[in-house]
Design goal:
The protein is mainly alpha-helical. It has one domain (3-144). It contains 4 helices and 2 strands, in the order αααββα. It has a two-stranded antiparallel sheet. Helix 1 (3-31) runs antiparallel to helix 2 (39-63) and helix 2 (39-63) packs parallel to helix 4. The longest helix has 29 residues, at 3-31. It is flat, with a radius of gyration of 17 Å. It starts with a helix and ends with a helix. The model has no long low-confidence stretch (mean pLDDT 96).
Length: 145
């Protein structure tokens, strides 16, 4: 599978999750006396839709790129894996309704806590993968111009 195809399939997957989480969000709003969805249900909905379009952009940049497709595919996979991990985290917190700030200490996950060092490590990896992956793809696009 080419990098651009991978990104387009990923965009479709994120868009579907966005639509499904939008239905979940509406169901929560309809059942709420305040007409509000839990914070992370709303966040999962919005992030999924935004990541769908981010994947479409990345796919277009991969199509018009100076780097080999394998480089673009690896960079795209790194981006999408961490996009998906973020959305999964939002969905879990939305379902558990355990926090409205996953970065607040102690880091809650249901009745348990996540060690601060583990959360910090994940956030560093997320930033490196997302920023680094995008820099690879974008620099290839710029180099092709």
């Amino acid at each position: 599978m080419s990098a651009s195809d991978f990104c387009l399939v990923s965009a479709g997957g994120f868009f579907l999750v966005g639509l499904l989480s939008g239905a979940w969000k509406y169901a929560c709003i309809a059942r709420s006396a305040e007409a509000k969805a839990p914070f992370y249900v709303d966040t999962a909905h919005r992030a999924s839709l935004l990541y769908a379009f981010a994947c479409a952009l990345i796919g277009e940049l991969c199509k018009r790129n100076a780097w080999p497709d394998g480089v673009n595919l690896a960079a795209s996979i790194a981006l999408v894996v961490f996009f998906a991990a973020a959305v999964l985290g939002y969905v879990v917190h939305g379902a558990l309704r355990d926090t409205d700030n996953q970065l607040q200490r102690p880091h809650r996950l249901g009745r348990r806590t996540i060690p601060a060092g583990l959360m910090l490590g994940f956030m560093i990896l997320l930033m490196l993968a997302e920023i680094g992956g995008f820099v690879v793809v974008f620099s290839g696009y710029v180099a092709a111009r």
